[in-house]
Amino acid sequence: MQDNITAAITEALDKAPERAFVESIEFAFTIKDVDLKNPNNRIKEEIRLPSGRGKEIKVA
Q1: Rg (CA), the chain
Q2: Of 59, 60, 47, 55, nearest to 23 (Cα)?
Q3: pTM above 0.85, yes or no
Q4: What is the DSSP annotation of the chain?
């Protein structure tokens, strides 16, 4: 699952023309026929984007 999502994001970024500003990506998906009230059906996925967040992490 993670490889498919990463590949789709990478493909979208590669096909997009170069912009003169920092772009963002909004990602939404629909889950059908899954009862999320049942703890066994909850999704626990963490996906690292190929280019990170695009911002440096600042620690105060």
Answers
A1: 16
A2: 55
A3: no
A4: -HHHHHHHHHHHHHHSPP-SS-----------S--TTSGGG--------TTTTSS-----
Smallest CA-to-CA distance from 11 within 44, 41, 50, 55 is with 50
pLDDT one-digit tens code per residue, 1-60: 778 888 888 898 889 888 888 777 777 878 888 888 888 888 777 777 777 767 777 887
As a whole number of angstroms, the distance between CA 10 and CA 40 comes to: 30
Locate 25 and state its tokens. Answer: 């990506």
Which amino acid is present at 49? L
Q: Please report the pLDDT score of residue 37 as a whole number.
A: 87
